[in-house]
């Protein structure tokens, strides 16, 4: 048996490959599932590992065990020898009586495949393996087999039970002739794609699961892609060898961190994309972001954004009044997001959402309005936010709407509302309104978003949240249940903000820890809970004035009518609309609509022409020089 493997490099080889080599003397068949379409580090020269497809990687592993050939079967082409060399094809044709076509393959039915499997596992002339590719597509449904399919899998199962390791009749010089199996390897997307009974209680069949590559594997693979990135800043190739090696190491570490949770093929595709776009190695994170979301231009790195954030507090105050503490904390979190420091304390924090905000407090105090304002600040358009009313997801099965139905269920091909929306708008604010009304099982979906910044829908497509801000709103903590299960008020208008903040945060913690038994969700949100205060009378007056100005502006734009108020009318209207503040700013708007907008609409509707006088005690008409009708309310 030949070997050229450095122990340090060997440790970077995929675990499934090392397990395969170790188990060949005692296992007849292997069910290989999971990340089978990825690339894997394999040795192409002594001391050198490079990414390669599974087929090539598998051959490298088996050739070190003195295997002479592979037979690759797939349901479309049939069987072909591998590697595709004249000597290999001649050997396979002679030993297994294959009749290869011009493309090097031989179409084959399941019955003939079962016979080939039997011949291969018993041959003692050479070591060979049979790889059944696309094994997940051999049947329409693994537990609803027709007679031909059932006979095939039964033959394969019997072969695994009865097979024995074999020694070669005439080993080549230097070959290790200790008994080994000539194995059958099933390549599957999922282990359940084979009949459930196939490997049951069969110790001769081993299941190998291929996972996503670890950081060290991605870092080693990244070094081989350094040459595809532009070398701008390296002085046109005149950089010293030591500095070049240092740059390559820095590049590989950054590339590996940015591709957390991605297969090695993603690194290859990202490098190809960078090569076409002329992206320098110093901007490797931008290349990964382009691969994930399909957009190279990143709004988070625009120079004007820092200027906007610097003036954010004043702009927010014009729309969200009377919440200085909430605004200050929100701007702090936004600054952290813009500077790319979200999750900086962790090694893999780069894939998390740009920002996470949990807005809590009474109804009508500006939580949703602040989310819209954030959207306009960062992305220039408040319509760039994606809103989900979580009261629509109170039932557990409603979670299928967010991620799409599971594969095989009706409608799974449509994907999920959340994943589709984020793929369409990768740079956005995602608002989950009244999150406490969602079913607890649905809240579990947020764990993966908050930790990994990604979700996979029913179609298998991945949506990346790494460029989004997640905003949760909630009324938790305003009312709580007492020891008798009755709903009682926890905080009230007039309480100091410090009291409101402490009690609301305490109630939120109790809700996630004890009522939902999901402290991990609270832990992912961390210290990003922003508590809003009640609307106080001075703030209510400012809100009222702003709403009244909006009405005046709308009437002028729509009807070319200017509204004027006497001091007495304005004061009376203000007192009516701000008498009760338990519903916040939304309550002020509702009362303004009842007390003023409805009577005004009736008066305007009754005006036949500019000379008419309707409801004289309410409206006095006069026309100024510009032709704008003035209504003086008395």
Which descriptors would you attach to this protein?
20 strands; 23 helices; Rossmann fold; 4 domains; elongated; disordered N terminus; 42% helix; 634 residues; five-stranded parallel sheet; alpha/beta; six-stranded mixed sheet
Can you walk through the features of this model?
The structure is a single chain. With 634 residues, the protein is an alpha/beta fold. The protein folds into four domains: 7-210, Rossmann fold (3-Layer(aba) Sandwich); 215-296, no CATH class; 316-531, P-loop containing nucleotide triphosphate hydrolases (Rossmann fold), CATH 3.40.50; 537-633, Helicase, Ruva Protein, domain 3. The chain contains 23 helices and 20 strands. It has a six-stranded mixed β-sheet with strand order 5-4-6-7-1-8, with helices on both faces. A five-stranded parallel β-sheet has the order 10-11-14-9-17, with helices on both faces. A three-stranded mixed β-sheet has the order 18-20-19. Helix 6 links the parallel strand 6 (128-132) and strand 7 (184-188). Helix 5 runs parallel beside helix 6 and helix 7 packs across helix 8 (241-258). The longest helix is centred in the C-terminal third of the chain and has 23 residues, at 537-559.
Look at the structure and give the CATH class of the largest domain. Answer: Alpha Beta
Query: What structural category arises from helix and sheet content?
Result: alpha/beta
Q: Overall pLDDT, averaged?
A: 84
Major beta sheet, strand line-up:
5-4-6-7-1-8
Number of helical segments with 4 or more residues: 23
Rg is: 34 Å
């Amino acid at each position: 048996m030949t070997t050229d493997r450095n122990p340090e490099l060997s440790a970077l080889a995929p675990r499934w490959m090392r397990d395969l080599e170790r188990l060949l003397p005692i296992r007849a068949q292997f069910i290989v599932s999971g990340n089978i379409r990825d690339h894997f580090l394999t040795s192409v020269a002594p001391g050198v590992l490079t990414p390669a497809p599974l087929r090539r990687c598998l051959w490298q592993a088996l050739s070190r065990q003195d295997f002479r050939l592979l037979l690759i079967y797939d349901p479309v082409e049939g069987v072909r020898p591998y590697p595709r060399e004249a000597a290999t094809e001649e050997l396979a044709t002679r030993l297994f009586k294959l009749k290869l076509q011009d493309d090097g393959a031989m179409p084959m039915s399941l019955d003939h495949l079962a016979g080939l499997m039997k011949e291969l596992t018993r041959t003692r002339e050479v070591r060979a393996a049979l790889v059944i590719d696309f094994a997940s597509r051999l049947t329409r449904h693994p537990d609803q087999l027709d007679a031909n399919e059932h006979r095939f899998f039964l033959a394969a199962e019997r072969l695994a039970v009865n097979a024995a390791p074999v020694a070669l009749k005439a080993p080549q010089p230097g070959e290790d002739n200790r008994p080994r199996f000539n194995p059958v390897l099933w390549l599957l997307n999922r282990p359940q794609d084979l009949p459930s009974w196939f490997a049951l209680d069969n110790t001769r069949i081993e299941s190998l699961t291929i996972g996503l590559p670890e950081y060290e594997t991605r870092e080693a693979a990244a070094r081989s892609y350094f040459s595809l990135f532009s070398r701008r800043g390296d002085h046109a190739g005149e950089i010293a060898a030591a500095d070049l090696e240092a740059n390559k190491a820095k590049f590989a570490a950054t590339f590996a961190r940015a591709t957390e949770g991605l297969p090695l093929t993603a690194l290859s595709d990202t490098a190809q994309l960078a090569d076409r776009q002329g992206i320098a190695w110093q901007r490797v994170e931008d290349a990964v972001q382009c691969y994930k979301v399909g957009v190279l231009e990143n709004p988070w790195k625009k120079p004007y954004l820092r200027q906007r954030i610097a003036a954010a507090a004043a702009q927010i105050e014009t729309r969200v009044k009377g919440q200085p503490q909430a605004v200050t904390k929100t701007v702090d979190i936004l600054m952290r997001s813009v500077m790319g420091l979200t999750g900086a304390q962790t090694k893999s924090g780069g894939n998390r959402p740009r920002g996470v905000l949990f807005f809590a407090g009474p109804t009508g105090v500006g939580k949703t309005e602040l989310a819209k304002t954030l959207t306009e600040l960062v992305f220039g358009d408040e319509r760039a936010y994606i809103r989900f009313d979580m009261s629509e997801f109170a039932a557990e099965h409603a979670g299928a709407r967010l991620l799409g139905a599971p594969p095989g269920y009706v409608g799974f091909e449509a994907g999920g509302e959340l994943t589709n929306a984020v793929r369409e708008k990768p740079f956005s604010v995602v608002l989950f309104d009244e999150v406490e009304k969602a079913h607890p099982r649905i809240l579990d979906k947020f764990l993966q978003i908050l930790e990994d910044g990604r979700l996979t829908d029913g179609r298998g497509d991945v949506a990346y949240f790494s460029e989004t801000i997640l905003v949760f709103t909630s009324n938790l903590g305003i009312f709580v249940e007492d020891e008798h299960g009755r709903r009682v008020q926890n905080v009230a208008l007039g309480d100091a903000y410090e009291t409101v903040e402490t009690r609301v945060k305490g109630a939120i913690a109790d809700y996630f820890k004890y009522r939902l038994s999901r402290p991990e969700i609270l832990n992912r949100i961390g210290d990003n809970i922003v508590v809003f205060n009640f609307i106080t009378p001075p703030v209510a007056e400012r809100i009222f004035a702003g709403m009244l100005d909006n009405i005046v502006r709308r009437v002028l734009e729509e009807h070319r009518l200017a509204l004027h108020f006497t001091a007495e009318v304005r004061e009376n209207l203000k007192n009516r609309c701000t008498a009760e503040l338990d519903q916040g700013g939304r309550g002020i708007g509702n009362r303004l609509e009842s007390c003023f907008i409805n009577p005004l609409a009736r008066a305007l509707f009754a005006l036949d022409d500019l000379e008419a006088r309707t409801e004289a005690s309410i409206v006095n008409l006069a026309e100024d020089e510009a032709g704008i009708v003035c209504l003086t309310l008395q």
